[in-house]
Amino acid sequence: MIEGKGQEVSERRALRELRVLMWVVIAIEVPVYLVWLVQVGYLTGQDLPRGDVARWAPSVLLPPAAVLFCVMAGWTWWLSVVAGTRSALRERWIVASLVFVAAFSVFCGVASVDDPSVSVGLLSAAVTGLGMTGLFFIPAAASRELPDVIRRRSRRTAAGPGEADPDPQ
Predict the structure, then answer these.
(1) Cα–Cα nearest to 105, from 33, 49, 31, 48
(2) Burial letters for 9-22: b for 16+ Cβ neighbours within 10 Å, e otherwise?
(3) pLDDT at residue 167 above 70?
(4) What are the pLDDT digits (tens) for 4-26?
């Protein structure tokens, strides 16, 4: 009886630590990505002629679009994970919105420098990937169902492929 209680306490602690780790990663990646988007969007827009209203579009529109599309995609994915249904990432509109954000972010990162190179492209891709990942996982990190989903998934993997779930609920 005590052994089961100790295991439950350690499981709760591990789940709490996972949630804290997710929030630490989000708290670092997301602000860096958003500040970077504003900066590279501004620099990219400044290459346009003076007086062109589109000069401000990348720095004003790209950060909110990235937040909206990435969090929306993460939210729909997380709802499908909680419900145990087909992954929402198979929907074309979700993939298209993520590809749009990634492509435009990397483009602005490369276009914002005077001498674009492969290393600038790789850095832009890395900052974009980390930031989008952080935004994408906000709904999962904030969800009350996170511990239940992790327990359900771990029971499924403990049963092994093709075996019955040891603790169906």
Answers:
(1) 33
(2) eeeeeeeeeebeeb
(3) no
(4) 676 777 888 888 898 999 999 99
Label residue 163 exposed, middle or buried (CB < 10 Å: 0-12, 13-18, 19+): exposed
Q: What are the distances in angstroms from CA 134 to CA 71, 102, 130, 159?
A: 9, 13, 6, 31
- Tell me how far apart the alpha carbons of residues 158 and 154 are, in angstroms, rounded to a whole number: 6
Token pair in block for residue 70: 């990435």
- 3 pLDDT more than 70: no
Which residue, chain included where needed, has tokens 């930031």? 131
Phi–psi pair at 74, nearest 5 degrees: -65, -40
Structure token digits, residue 94:
């979700």
Q: Where are the beta strands (DSSP E) in 3-154?
A: none
